[in-house]
Amino acid sequence: MALAELNAAVLLLGLTAYAVLGGADFGAGFWDLTAGGARRGARLRGMVKNAMGPVWEANHVWLIFVLVVFWTAFPRAFGPVMQTLYVPLYLAGVGIIFRGAAFALRGEAATIVEARLLGGAFALASVAVPFFLGAVVGAVASGQVPAEGAGDAWESWTGPFPLYIGVLTVGAGAYIAAVFLAGDSVRVGQEDLARAFRWRALAAALVTGVLAIAGLFVARSQARGLYDGLTSGGGVVAVVVSALAGVVALALVWREHYEPARYASAVAVAATVAGWGLAQRPDFLPGALSLDEAAAGRPTQIAILVSMGIALLILAPSLWLLFRLTLAGRLDTDFHPIAAADRRDEP
Amino acid sequence: MQALSLAVHIPLVCFGVAFPAMVLYMEGLYVRTGDPLYKVIAKRWSKVMLILFAVGAVTGTILSFELGLLWPEFMERFGEVFGMAFALEGVAFFLEAIFIAIYVYGWDRISPRAHLLTGIPVVIAGFTGSLMVIGVNGWMNDPGGFELDSDGNVTGVNPFAAFVNSNVWHEWVHMYLAGFLVAGFIVAGVYAFSWLRGHRDRFRQVAMVVPLTFACLAAPIQVVVGDWAGRTVAEEQPTKLAAFEGLEQTTRGADLRLGGIMIGDEIYGSVSIPDGLSLLAHHDPNAEVEGLNAVPADERPPVPVVRNAFQVMIGIGTGLALLAVVYLVTAVRRGRPPRSKWFYIAVVAAGPAALVALIAGWIVTEVGRQPWIVYRVMRVSEAVTGAEGIPVGYATLALVYAALAVIVLYLLRRLAHRPIELEAESAARGTDDGSG
Amino acid sequence: MTPRTLTLAALAALVVGVGLMVLFDTAATLVVSVVLLFAYLVLGVFAIAAPGHLGELGDRDDSPGD
């Protein structure tokens, strides 16, 4: 009982990290997409690339982490989820290929056509991937996945609720990214970019906030179980924490304290993910499969917890080193705008 | 589809596990001698390493998606048995991602010694990560660490017992060495090629000799490790060994039939060594070698595919080992690589050849296990997804990978064509142009 | 260590490692042989790709071909 919940907590922790760090990454791609024409958006794009460079791989490994813990600890749920939601998962997968490859290679692009093609692929995929992954989460949360075999390949995730979660995920990512990027811009001394990202952060916060509130109503009609969970017990706490952290982050951005805003907005997203977990406890697939039913055998669960503990001992200091070096600007490259024809890169 | 992704992923893995060691060695030379040439090479390679790692990370992510998308039944039943190893591989991979970023972005920003140190976790992570993944494959060949109850449900799972199976060790050593062969010969081949085209400077010499040394040292021992692998297979999966050799009947004192090509049930153009197979597989010329007829026809792998792939691997492996011996002897006696034009041509050819051998070896172990996905427990057909639209997905993925390959090669080529950045040392900028 | 000692050490590791791997079939000997073979690899690299060797590679000491 407790064991399965601990494992679920590990899974949610990984998901939270992915939502915050990966989300910020995808969000940065969103701003890249909406930065405007080649000349106007050049400086913004340069900043996006600069900020993402050293950390994006580490950010994306969280997804692999989530997947492996998922199938190891909860194999009984993994099968149905994969069989039902293979369409959005496949699309997200293709998006990840495009995005990762395009980002890694963009630095080497030499001509206008190449840079546009790679940049476009990167930015579009940055929006598509979180949308589809969000839709997957939405489908799971609204009980569209049956415990046995496959649910409907399309209807399961094209309902209002999964699509709504998809949009919300994109919005939340964009918001976090804007906050992070504003902080990064200040660090490399690009005040005008900091202002640009500040406005974007405020706008994204507004949109995401409205979406989140609207979301409660969507949930009430579409995912009643989730709504009930969010409005009672631990769910309420999570919702309140999330809202408070969101407001605090907003105020901090408004007053241009970007570094603390980073953490406040991370808390807001983390609380949302935690709220989801609390709301649907003790079910893994709402209405179909409980945590215990989905879970692997005892030895495997213990083994996961032990190895994750060891992993934490190794990874935490490493991650800390990476982020400390990054935030201290030790890994910054010289700032270059990315105009279409520009191809300076100095990793 | 999985096969396609793996075929893309495996060569990248080779660079992931073996290339960092070479880059690090090169940087070590710089720290030791202070000669900026080594640093230029190491720095340049580290960029390539980052690109390949990134693409490898992406294909790796896709692979874990595909495990679920294509083999839902397999994952549902056995995920808890072998998932552990994947979780640890995830950790190793994480570590590699963290330090590779610090390493590549940290040039000139942290002290040379500290920078060198940040590279070490990358090497270690590649080392352990490959061990974990191979652990899963070894388990598929020798499933253990669980019991099946009367309904075929998995019970009594012991993840550690599943990991420590009879196959993991030789598969891992074999794979790790293969990483050095592929990465080493390909990198060396690139520089050997430009040597042949008349670009003969010290930069290219050094950049060729170091990876070539790694690869050539690994090649002869790969043969020995391969022999060890063969013996283990003979013990654990006799049917697989029979498929390697196309051995129809269980035979005492079986002959070894080298080379040739197998079409249908016949082997053409091979050379027979009396009692050779028994000698190799069991170190006893009279030992009995189990043939394909030991199992029913529907439990045999597609023999011609396996045998031909096996012969290709053996043939190339032997060739590479010979090339390696030529190089090693010359290098030790004269302190320089051979000067013959033919040697350089051979090095250029060795890269792609090693890659072919790698893929062939992978076909040998995977197809050789057919029709089982979990050896003698679960058939591939029981594990595969029933989802429709697989062909569509397959076609798009193939296109995406093809595009990816073209772009990567194109960009790497240009990276290589940039003028050597010796001057970049002093004037940290000005590396802009690549009019090569 | 000089390249010469390194070379000899690498060779020794190779011979003993291969011997253990081919002639015996127990876990302990296999582990030792794998360790020895890796040692041979590392020692060999340091012996052959040593700075002394890399330095004296001239660029004009052969070009009969072109």
Give short descriptive properties of this protein.
heterotrimer; B: 436 residues; mainly alpha; two-stranded antiparallel ribbon; 10 strands; disordered C terminus; C: mainly alpha; 0% strand; elongated
Oligomer: heterotrimer
Largest sheet of chain B: 2 strands, antiparallel
Which H/E pattern describes the elements of chain C?
A: HHH
Tell me about the largest β-sheet of chain C. Answer: none
Which structural class do you get from the secondary structure elements of chain C? mainly alpha
Residues in helix, % of chain C: over 70%
CA gyration radius of chain C, whole angstroms: 17 Å
Strand order of the largest sheet of chain B: 1-2
Could you name the ranges of chain C where pLDDT drops below 50 across 5 or more consecutive residues? Answer: 56-66
Task: Give unreliable regions of chain B as ranges.
Answer: 422-436
Q: Which pair of chains has the greatest number of interface residues, and how are they split between the two chains?
A: A-B, 68 and 79 residues
Helix count of chain B equals 13
Structural class of chain B: mainly alpha
Q: Overall mean pLDDT score of chain B?
A: 77
Shape of chain B: globular
The number of helical elements of chain C comes to 3
**Strand/helix succession of chain B:** HHHHEEHHHHEEEEEHEHHEEHH
Distance between the termini of chain C: 39 Å
Q: Fraction of residues of chain B in helices?
A: over 70%
Tell me how many strands of chain C there are.
0
